[in-house]
Amino acid sequence: MRYLARELSWPKVKALAESGAVALLPVGSTEAHGPHLPLSVDVVIAEEVCRRIGERLEVDTVVFPPSAYSLTDFAAPFSGTVSVPAETSKALLSSVLTGIAGSFSRIAVINHHLEPAHFRIVHAAAKEVQATLPNAKIVVADHRREPTGPKLGHEFMHGGSHAGGYETSLMLAAAPQLVDTAATRSLAPLTVDLPARIKAGATNFLECGGPQAYFGDPGAASAAEGERLFEIIVEQALSAIRERLL
User: Fold this and answer.
1) For the chain, what is the HEC assignment?
2) Domain 2-244 listed as CATH 3.30.559.30
3) pTM for the structure as a whole
4) Distance CA 56, CA 48 (A)
């Protein structure tokens, strides 16, 4: 069964932790995602993955409030983006995980902010806390890696996954009321190899060739595709949890 930590009293949290429940920490960012999606895309998707994990995992889960601020240098030029320095981001996430580990011995981090530097921070923070608290088990689900990544499609694997068909489809499946469908239909496909641009020295989305903070093809998105993508992402997370925590 899935529980939301924000709705529970401390005795209920204590009882769930002692019964072996898995704590889920959704991690995202607050950053621009094109003119058609909200700043909360990464958080919404991470929370939806947690919700679906809770429906399928064979033990109870407790979903903690999301970590919604982190390093997001590439979207920094766009209004509403809040980028936190790397050292601060790592310290914050490490502190949050340490706090959760004060009650729960099994923790899964569900991240959907895909900026490479941020994902490195997530892995580093989990590793640091795991080393400090050996009685806690912490897993970071990472759907970028094979064999999962290629299943998510060409756009995801080749650098155009920010606010394109991939993320717009996920949002149509998770929170369609937050998608500006008129704006989505007006956006032309924007094919950009983000890894190549970054390797060439680009430091933000403008320099990467994304003047509206989107890449890929938002117009090709659909809720059905979002459901397909969620199934893949959730299955990867469930496998990681079962292998490392159960």
Assistant:
1) CEEEHHHCCHHHHHHHHHCCCEEEEEECCCCCECCCECCCHHHHHHHHHHHHHHHHCCCCEEECCCECCECCHHHCCCCCCCECCHHHHHHHHHHHHHHHHCCCCEEEEEECCCCHHHHHHHHHHHHHHHHHCCCCEEEEECCCCCCHHHHCCHHHHCCCCCCCHHHHHHHHHHCHHHCCHHHHHHCCCECCCHHHHHHCCCCCHHHHCCCCCCCECHHHCCHHHHHHHHHHHHHHHHHHHHHHCC
2) no
3) 0.97
4) 13
Each residue of 168-209: pLDDT tens digit?
A: 999 999 999 999 999 999 999 999 888 788 889 999 999 999
Per domain, the residue ranges of the chain are 2-244
24 phi and psi angles, rounded to 5 deg: -115, 130
**For the chain, what percent of residues have pLDDT higher than 90?**
92
Q: What is the model's pLDDT at position 195?
A: 78
